[in-house]
Amino acid sequence: QVQLVESGGGLVQAGDSLRLSCAASGRTFSNDAMGWFRQPPGKEREFVTTISWSGGTTNYADSVKGRFTISRDNIKNTVYLQMNSLKPEDTAVYYCAARLARLGSANINAYDYWGQGTQVTVSS
To answer: Is 35 helix (H, G, I), strand (E, B) or coil?
Structure first.
């Protein structure tokens, strides 16, 4: 019954921007941390960014710091990922995740719910 559904992916050129959305249903996550992870083709899933329950604390992977911004709207039960200055190495399936704790974690095993993923492809 609990679902996380990502949207907003697509094919863009290097230097372009995308905004991903993750809509949660089945329960509210207003007291829980959220995060974004990605899986490049042929590689393991990796940490991108996390946000705490109230949005006051965020963390980013070094590879996206300064280019990506995570935010959340607890009224809408939705988390967002704004991606600017996209690079070909950003190409991956992007996954939204929810953790039943107030603070986020970069550890993929710390999350309890996952979305189905949305494809982001960046051409050079």
So the answer is: strand
Question: Which pLDDT tens digit goes with each residue over 13-32?
Answer: 999 999 999 999 999 999 99
CB 115 within 8 A of CB 95: yes
User: Nearest to residue 121, comparing CAs of 97, 95, 86, 96?
Assistant: 86
Residues 51/70, Cβ–Cβ less than 8 Å: yes
User: Would you state the torsion angle of the CA atoms of residues 65, 78, 38, 89, taken in this order, to the nearest 10 degrees?
Assistant: -50
- Categorise residue 13: left if φ over 0, alpha if ψ from -120 to 50, beta otherwise: beta
Residue 55 CB-half CA count within 13 A? 13
